[in-house]
Design a protein that fits this description.
The chain is α/β, with parallel strands linked by helices and 287 residues long. It has 2 domains: 12-122 and 275-284, Quinolinate phosphoribosyl transferase, N-terminal domain (Aldehyde Oxidoreductase, domain 3), CATH 3.90.1170; 157-266, TIM Barrel. Helices cover 38% and strands 19% of the residues. Helix 1 crosses helix 3 (59-65), helix 3 packs antiparallel against helix 4 and helix 4 (95-126) packs across helix 5 (144-153). The relative contact order is 0.17.
């Protein structure tokens, strides 16, 4: 069995660098609307509010957006359940700067909270069975660390972070190398975890003649999955080889996989097609 590092914190320098990049995209010159309508030196109190029930993710993002020039009160921590119309934070600071940052800040925490909220739904189903929900590399370009962090906030686990973290042999690698055994033989030259996707029992039988660390059962129905797990366990223990189901599993059909004996389920949808949560920033009176 193997575990990849779980991203449970976000480096401050990483957050600050991303904020600079994101703000530069949104304000190439200046926020002329705010400059035109708001008196210089104006200060305001604003509230970040969730308009639906969510699992919140984004505490360090808010802290870095609203630093020394602001008075910040955070009422939710990452991983907290925030109810509809719940107040996430109260912010007091320069009005123009506050509105300059509003959209960019919301874009990030809405997406991360969407990932955490959706992930938590999968975790709730699989946790009683000891099955881990795993993410994928199907993330927004240049925001991967944010999104994989949100996955852990939702209670799931991170699969490999990038192409340098482990070897994961897929169908195109097998085709290009000539065979499963050829691909695994080449992978053995690197001191990395070796995982391989399997699409049939024939492929699994060949895979099990080699030394590997993990097998991904790709797009297999629950019946074939159970058969595959039973066969793999005649060759390798759970400590030797980790078995993951991937492809086509969602909240509607996941229950059918919970008693198949798999160790994990890889869900690309929790990052690549998740719906952002509805969070807003409203200027108002301090409470």
């Amino acid at each position: 069995m193997f575990n990849y590092p779980r991203i449970t914190t976000l480096p401050t320098d990483y957050i600050r660098t991303k904020i600079v990049q994101i703000m530069s995209e949104d304000i190439p010159e200046d926020d002329f609307t705010s400059l035109a309508t708001i008196p210089a030196g104006s200060r305001s109190v604003a509230f970040i509010e969730s308009l639906e029930e969510i699992v919140f993710a984004g505490e360090p993002i808010i802290r870095e957006f609203f630093g020394e020039d602001y008075k910040l009160k955070l009422f939710a921590k990452d991983g907290d359940l925030v109810y509809k119309n719940g107040i996430i934070a109260e912010i007091e600071g320069p009005t123009i700067d506050l509105l300059k940052k509003e959209r960019s800040m919301l874009n990030i925490i809405q997406r991360l909270s969407g990932i955490a909220t959706e992930t938590a739904k999968y975790v709730e189903k699989t946790k009683p069975y000891g099955i881990k929900i795993l993410d994928t590399r199907k993330t927004t370009p240049l925001l991967r660390l944010f999104e994989k962090y949100a996955v852990t906030v939702g209670g799931a686990y991170n699969h490999r972070l990038d192409l340098s973290s482990a070897i994961l042999i897929k169908d195109n690698h097998i085709k290009a190398s000539g065979s499963i055994s050829n691909a695994i033989k080449g992978a053995a030259n690197y001191n990395l975890n070796i995982e391989i996707e399997a699409e049939s029992m024939t492929e699994i039988e060949e895979i099990c003649n080699n030394k590997i660390n993990g097998i991904l059962l790709d797009n297999m129905n629950p019946e074939i999955t159970k058969k595959a797990v039973d066969y793999i366990r005649t060759k390798f223990t759970a400590d030797e080889v980790y078995i993951i189901s991937s492809g086509g599993i969602n909240l509607k059909n996941i229950d059918e996989y919970l008693t198949t004996g798999i160790d994990g389920i890889s869900i690309g949808a929790i990052t690549h097609s998740v719906k952002a949560t509805d969070i807003r920033l409203e200027i108002g009176e301090a409470k």
